[in-house]
Write a structure and sequence with these properties.
mainly alpha, Glycerol uptake facilitator protein, 10 helices, globular
Length: about 210
């Protein structure tokens, strides 16, 4: 269900306008690739964190008793397989997810499928990696859940590992394909209209057979 929501958001008018960055780790990777200005990147990260906090706060207000139940505990991520494995799992998920986005979004033939791949990959990662890492994959989510749950001990894993993974993917992209191989910071770029990122999407489309 979450995967379907994400796909719908990415291809919605709002998602295509904003770039559909839901994750500070993704924004930092595009910043490393020089496709988003520093102030825009800071604004995105702040908005993502505040959005997570507000979303969890609304959940607490509406179904607080259920979320606070010890069996659920706000769906807080917990490194059930150990700290090292959890850290590696979160970092690897960040690396793989960002790599797929960068490969598809910057290929003129496949760029339109980037959003679908992102949603499907999230579902796969939740099934495979979440039992080991706790399944945060997003620093904003980890922080937002830590506030009501009070589980701060392992928060550093979920703040550090996903960005390290996405930044590693961005660094690999630059090294293997060059500084100009990433055309825009949008997950799904509309065919027309202006773009507020450091955008070269028109150049990508010009390469389409």
């Amino acid at each position: 269900m979450t995967a379907l929501f994400i796909v719908g958001f990415i291809y919605s008018r709002f998602g295509q306008r904003s770039g559909a960055h839901r994750n500070p780790a993704v924004t930092l990777a595009f910043f490393h690739l020089v496709r988003i200005d520093p102030w825009d990147a800071a604004g995105y990260v702040i908005a993502q964190i505040l959005g997570g906090i507000v979303g969890v706060g609304l959940g607490v207000a509406v179904i607080g008793d259920w979320l606070a139940d010890p069996a659920v505990n706000y769906i807080a991520p917990v490194p059930t397989a150990g700290i090292l494995i959890a850290f590696l799992a979160e970092a690897v998920v960040g690396f793989l997810a960002m790599t797929i986005v960068l490969v598809l979004a910057n290929d003129a033939k496949f760029t339109r499928f980037t959003g679908i791949a992102s949603g499907l990959l999230l579902a796969v990662f939740v099934l495979i990696a979440a039992p080991y890492s706790g399944g945060s994959f997003n620093p904003a989510r980890g922080l937002a859940i830590a506030i009501p749950s009070g589980l701060w001990q392992h928060l550093w894993i979920y703040l550090l590992a996903p960005p390290l993974g996405t930044l590693a993917a961005a660094a690999a992209r630059r090294r293997l394909s060059g500084n100009d191989a990433t055309y825009c910071a949008k997950i799904s770029h509309p065919a027309t209209g202006t773009c507020h990122f450091c955008c070269h999407f028109a150049e990508l489309m010009a390469k389409k057979p």
